[in-house]
Automatic annotation (TrEMBL):
This is PfkB family carbohydrate kinase. Transmembrane segments: none annotated. Pfam families: PfkB. Residues 61-317 form the Carbohydrate kinase PfkB domain. Coiled coil: none annotated. It comes from Streptomyces virens. GO terms for molecular function: kinase activity. The keyword Transcription regulation does not apply.
């Protein structure tokens, strides 16, 4: 599991990174590790509310953050974990769109060459209010431009993350799979109420499918998340079912391997983007060739670190946060040795130079400060 730390020399403020695929890279590799496409939102997140907003009253939030959201949550999480990430998206022709483009390209090092700015199009916006461990969201957006989601020909990449939509097929998914990309599929709530796996035609291109427990049980007609995961392997080689506070469970049909990892107990500030971070962690471990249980543990850890900060892409952890957490938990008196062994694989992944105080606070509570001359 050897990794290589690398410092950025392009003048950016991104912290030193770990390359989890360093030992696997060869000259004829694809240029990109992961390809993504989708809609970028501007997310504005209010936190520190004592309760849900009450009709006819004004509520004051103790915290606020703004950041690129939507598919940008996943792209940022992957990039901060050291994967070379390529995103195809449409950006609004406004200050919001300019801010999101700059934050992703300059701030996170994400390749936006397949993306474009659409003249006259307003950036979609989501306002999220976090309270009592939950969130309420209000979104606004204009009709997306034609062919907004993806270009006709996706670039060659090791992997792609696809959001599957009931009753709809996205041609780029099959194209990416034919080029050798390993497809990781996630899914949202089925508003049609059909919960029919046959309505997810692109599932046949996926190596892994990562629904939450409720989605998995509805799609398989089972009453147990583990039974749902087993049933899903009739349709996809690898099923990963997230169980919320109970962790995650996975079944690999090809090897017969199963894995169950409990969740890490943390004080959650904002769950926005935690599912995207989980997927990013699992993709990272899979591309690096880690054992299934290590992949689940790493994905759960990254998700747990993310909910301790507000915002979606703002809260995605990098290796500095992971290193800080790992050093800190080893020093806790009375730490369960079995729990430490579960994450012992991190010892070879986090160079000493990445140690910083934990938890880190990375969020900037404004769309952007003016640059000094």
């Amino acid at each position: 599991m050897a990794s290589t730390a690398k410092a950025f020399t392009d003048g950016s403020h991104r912290p030193p990174q770990v390359d989890p695929l360093a030992a696997l890279r060869v000259p004829d590799d694809p240029l990109w590790d992961v390809y993504l496409t989708g809609t970028v939102f501007l997310d504005i997140v209010f936190t520190g509310l004592d309760s849900a907003p009450v009709r006819g009253t004004e509520s004051w939030a103790r915290g606020m953050g703004s950041s690129p959201g939507g598919v940008a949550n996943m792209a940022t999480a992957l990039a901060r974990l050291g994967l070379r990430t390529c995103l195809a998206a449409a950006f609004g022709d406004d200050h919001y769109g300019e801010y999101c483009w700059d934050a992703l390209e300059q701030g996170e090092g994400i390749d936006l060459s397949p993306s474009r700015t659409v003249p006259g199009w307003h950036s979609p916006v989501t306002v999220s209010m976090a309270y009592e461990g939950e969130r309420t969201m209000v979104s606004h957006g204009h009709e997306p431009p034609p062919d907004e989601p993806a270009p006709d020909c996706p670039p060659r990449a090791r992997a792609a993350v696809a959001s599957l939509t009931p009753g709809r097929s996205a041609p780029w998914i099959a194209q990416a799979a034919r080029k050798g990309a390993r497809i990781f599929g996630d899914v949202g709530w089925d508003d049609t109420g059909a919960w029919d796996l046959a309505a997810l035609p692109d599932l046949r291109h996926c190596e892994a499918f990562l629904p939450n427990a409720e989605e998995a049980m509805r799609y398989t007609g089972t009453d147990c998340p583990r039974a749902a995961a087993q049933a899903l392997t009739e349709h996809v080689p690898l099923a990963v079912v997230t169980l919320g506070a109970q962790g995650a469970y996975a079944v690999d049909r090809r090897t017969g391997e199963t894995a169950s990892v409990p969740a890490i107990e943390v004080e959650a500030l904002d769950p926005t983007g935690a599912g995207d971070v989980f997927v990013a962690g699992f993709v990272t471990g899979t591309l690096a060739g880690w054992p299934l249980a290590d992949r689940l543990a790493f994905a759960g850890l990254t998700a747990a670190l993310s909910v301790q900060e507000f915002g979606g892409s703002l809260s995605a952890p990098g290796w500095t946060e992971i290193a800080g957490w790992w050093r800190r938990v080893q020093s806790v008196e009375g730490q369960d040795p079995a729990a430490l062994r579960r994450y012992a694989f991190l010892a070879d992944m986090v160079p000493e130079g990445l140690v910083r105080p934990w938890p880190l606070r990375r969020a900037v509570p404004t769309i952007g400060f003016r640059r000094s001359a």
